[in-house]
Amino acid sequence: MTGSVVLRDSEDANGTRHLSARMRGGRDLIIEGHDLGKGVSGVFGEGISEYEWNYFIKKEDIPLLIKTFGGEEGDDILELIAERCTGEGAQSLEEVIRDNNIPHEFWNRMGD
User: Fold this and answer.
1) Alpha-carbon gap, residue 111 to 90, rounded angstroms
2) How many other C-beta atoms can be found within 10 angstroms of the C-beta atom of residue 11?
3) Strand residue runs (E) in the chain
4) pTM check: above 0.85
């Protein structure tokens, strides 16, 4: 399990949205998001036009995520994520992590 996958990379009148997943050191999974523009302000309020976040899933917890996606031991988590959570389905990745109690660390930042 190495490499990275872009799950969402879009731009429209509301701004830009980017979401990707990558393996850190071939071991741990990091999911990184970055949104800019009016769409962010519409959610968080005027004056906040940037939102960044990431989910960090340790190597030992990746098999649970693989199983949650219907995969089997040894499947590549990035391939499973790319198959199920690209484009409009990108948001479902965050829901899968939270709704299935996948152990993770979460970080975010709002700004201008």
Assistant:
1) 22
2) 11
3) 4-12, 15-24, 28-36, 50-57, 105-111
4) yes
